[in-house]
Amino acid sequence: MNVVQISENTLVVLFEQAINLDIFKQVTAVTSAIEQPLSDYIIDIVPSYASIHILFDLHKIASGEFLEMVKAATLNASVQTASTPSQNIVDIPVYYGPEVGLDLDFISSSSGLSPDEVIKLHSNNIYDVYAMGFAPGFAYLGTVDERIAMPRKETPRKHIPAGSLGIADQQTAIYPSDSPGGWQIIGRTPEVLVDYKNEEPTKVKTGDQVRFVPISKDQYLELGGAL
Amino acid sequence: MSLQIINPGFLTQVQDYGRYGLQKYGITNSGPMDEHAFLWANQLLGNEFNAAQLEICMGGFAARFELDAVISVCGAEGNITINHQKIEMWKSIAVKAGDEIRVDAFSSGLYAYLAIKGGFTVEHHLHSAATVMREKLGGLNHDGQKLANKERVLYRECCYDFSMRIPPEFKPEYGGKVEIRFIPNYSETGCSESVIQAFSEQEFIVTPEINRMGYRLKGEAIHSDSKGIISQGISVGAIQLPKDGQPIVLMKDRQTIGGYPQIGCVAYLDLAKLSQSTPGSKVSFMPVKVGAIESELRTYLSFFNVSYSIRA
């Protein structure tokens, strides 16, 4: 682990640069050791797969002093990794039907599995939110079973409807709003994942866990889903 | 009562200092592209640093004041008139109900700021008035849209009490060749010394692919061994090196995380100059040590009384 100052008012904590759950657990442990205790100085903090990006308030503290505080907190966190905060599990209903699972057939034929097997492999899993970005509320979830891991589409779609659930390699994510995108789409949720009226504007955040709950077409429509 | 838009021009948006503390949800900071001009526009009126203004991109703007007001216009240079009389920029000016302001196409620079004493009254959307089109966030109608013809931007009537002009030594000049300082990033997710050297030694051209998210530059392609990095949070001013070897400088509306290796980060106070650089402008980058410029930024934040307690 290494703490680097990359601009006048930004530090990054860099972990071993790899995508795996062990490293990510360190990221979440260190994030909680920094975020609250040093909240007086932090303007923005962005944990991601193997790093924590921190914009701090130069008005209140000099970089050298802040860097020492962050280093001390990271050491402290490494000592007590056992006491990682309890994780929030978020259930998200998903309709994996052919009308909304635009690439379900493609995934099925490329993997040699039936659509039902693909859906089962995707939904019988608890995913970790490794990062948020790309768009408000867009959560990068891992890890997708390798049997249904799919590369992004060669030509991205110009329009993907809000709520669409996609796969890219061993990651999966929901597009929170209408957007262009290249992920392979396997279903859609009727839930609203970003609401600017809420104090916490997104339904999930980095460090949470997510479970996809398959629902029928009727349930999807009842919950307000659009076809 | 309000400012009534007669012609919104190419792109005029409501902006305040920006939206902080929400980057972890994937929500960008936004805020004025030329922060220096924005802060002076408020300063000249005795406004709070964060008071909402109109950011006018490329000019072509016209509007009518429905109440007496005191205004200031800072940033890109151009012909700006009140009732067809040219006015001075970087200065507080009294206007009367019924007066019409016109901002012609700029002669140099890309962004100008129209501030009003007391600030425009724009209800915050997630703690800020800043407009982000891509995120459908902020602005007059909380949908991220730019200003449209006939829209009204509210403000409170104000009478003239004092006049202030920017001290000439602080007034920037836009246009011409731009020299930008940057803090090299030698970390694991940064670049090698040879890449940073190749970047520092050449002159780039600002391409037409520039917007509030980022400025794409063109030069001799810089080849890096890095295949990309694991996505991490990105700062305003971060200089990314995509596979094609042509750097991109990230601006106020950037995405919150990114997976390109970073050559470094533009000195915060030099971002204003870069944001005013039109396509075709020449720009070069000079490496500096972060320790040498930190106090300059602190002095600037103190001078304008910037306080991040506005964060969520």
Walk me through what this model shows.
The complex is a heterodimer of chains A (227) and B (312). Helices cover 24% and strands 30% of the residues of chain A. Chain A is an alpha+beta fold. In chain A, helix 1 crosses helix 2 (63-79). Chain A is elongated and about 55 Å long. Chain B has helices at 35-43, 193-201, 271-275, 290-303, and strands at residues 2-7, 11-15, 53-57, 61-65, 69-77, 80-82, 85-86, 92-95, 100-103, 108-116, 152-154, 178-184, 203-210, 214-218, 232-233, 238-240, 248-250, 257-258, 262-266, 282-287. Chain B is globular. Chain B starts with a strand and ends in a 9-residue tail after the last helix. The model of chain B has no long low-confidence stretch (mean pLDDT 95). The interface between A and B is large, with 47 and 52 residues.
Short structural summary:
The complex is a heterodimer of chains A (227) and B (312). With 227 residues, chain A is an alpha+beta fold. Chain A has helices at 21-35, 63-79, 104-111, 115-123, 217-222, and strands at residues 2-7, 10-14, 42-48, 51-56, 89-94, 126-132, 139-142, 157-160, 164-168, 171-174, 179-181, 184-188, 209-214.
Give the key terms.
heterodimer, A: 227 residues, alpha+beta, 7-stranded mixed β-sheet, 4-stranded antiparallel β-sheet, 13 strands, B: 312 residues, mainly beta, Cyclophilin, 7-stranded mixed β-barrel, 6-stranded antiparallel β-sheet, 4 helices, 31% strand, globular
Structural class of chain B: mainly beta
Helix percent of chain B reads 10-25%
Uncertain parts of chain B:
none
Major sheet: arrangement of strands of chain A = 5-13-6-7-10-9-12
Helix content range of chain A: 10-25%
Quaternary structure state of the chains depicted = heterodimer
Strand order of the largest sheet of chain B: 12-19-16-17-14-13-20
Instruction: Tell me about the largest β-sheet of chain A.
Output: 7 strands, mixed
Radius of gyration of chain A: 19 Å
